Amino acid sequence: MRFRDRSDNEEVLVASSPIPKRWPSTQPIYHYTTPQGLLGILESHTIWASEAAGLNDLDEVRNGWDEIERYLEQNDPGGDFGWVLHESVRAANDPSQSVFVACASSRPDDAGQWDRYASGGLGYALEFDTSVAFGVKARSAEPPDWADKFIAESSYLRTSWDYAIYGREELHQHLDLMWTSISTRLKRAQDDPTTAFHKDLRVDSFEAAKSTLAWLSPYGFEHLAYRYKSSGFESEQEVRCTLRIRGAESAVSHRVSPYGITGYVELSGLPNERQFDNIVWEDTDVYKNLRLPLQKVILGPKIDWRTGKTAVERLLRSTGYDNVEVTRSQVNLR
User: Pfam families of this UniProt entry (predicted)?
Assistant: First the structure.
């Protein structure tokens, strides 16, 4: 898993953790939406990442955390390292943490998702380029206090898009590989602490290496927990991007969900020169030029092709997406 983050300390460990079935950055993702959703996305140039506590499948996320904690209990290394690792994981598994999840699919023309998420076939599927980084588009001014701004931006952790994890067996495959990585690092740190991590994160003792490893590992476990889903939904081939934001409440908006009021952040594509930015504030020059990396709009199987194509192309031009392709679904949705 590769984290895009300004904090090298949090990036270097998890970047080398071996994870199967990685999402290739050259492959697009697909977001199924309603006509109202399409209007909102194009006019705001954003998609939403919802607060994890407001997800429809929150119970699955909780089950993922439960499996992770059971796994760690069964593989408890003991000693100070084991204690710190367990405490760090419990702290990460805290519903008050500001974790947000954006969801999409790897399937461009899926009957089930047309029916479930795109107005029964009268909606749209949007194709996005995943080689472009997504950042938070904050509808608020940059914090005037430099300390508040630093806390908000340095506490932000964004993962690249990655496959959802379906079922206990697949989760344990990821956990086994991650645990192997942790064990390998511990052995390396015991032999020579200075080689345990990336060159930008040097430690001089085995104890320091253990503490650092115990502190960094929960970010990897978190990335697994928030991608965990029931195996019954595997046909959707979902991909997710997770974000952890602390100290930037002004960047969070709210909406009504089936579970009450829940938070969300708006994501937009970042220009090449700002690929490692975390939050783009409203009063900055970059803000007004943010655009989604939209490549294609696919019309749902129940939309009339000729009239629907004309309307969508006009909408795309009016919102600044002149070069986006418009195609139609090949699914026969009854």
Answer: DUF2971 (PF11185)
Start-to-end C-alpha separation, the chain:
40
Phi-psi region of 45 (alpha: psi -120 to 50; beta: other; left: phi over 0): left
Query: How far, in Å, CA of 68 to CA of 221, rounded?
Result: 7
Element (H, E) at 8: helix 8-15
pLDDT of residue 4: 34
pLDDT tens digit string along 67-100? 999 998 898 877 778 888 888 888 877 766 678 8
Q: Is residue 25 one of the residues assigned to a domain? A: no
Q: Is residue 261 part of a domain?
A: yes
Element (DSSP H or E) covering residue 47: strand 47-51
> For residue 169, how many other CB atoms are within 10 A of its CB?
9
Q: Could you tell me which of 177, 179, 81, 135 has the C-alpha nearest to residue 269?
A: 135
- Alpha-carbon torsion (253, 264, 271, 31), positive or negative: negative
Domain assignment present for residue 154? The answer is: yes
Total number of domains constituting the chain: 1
| Full residue range of the structural domain in which residue 256 is found | 3-20+35-319
The phi and psi torsions of 3 (rounded to 5 degrees) equal: -95, 135
Determine, yes or no, domain membership for 28. Answer: no
CA–CA separation, 105 and 270 (whole Å): 21
Instruction: State pLDDT tens for residues 150-169.
Output: 555 544 556 678 899 998 89
Average confidence score pLDDT of the chain? 82
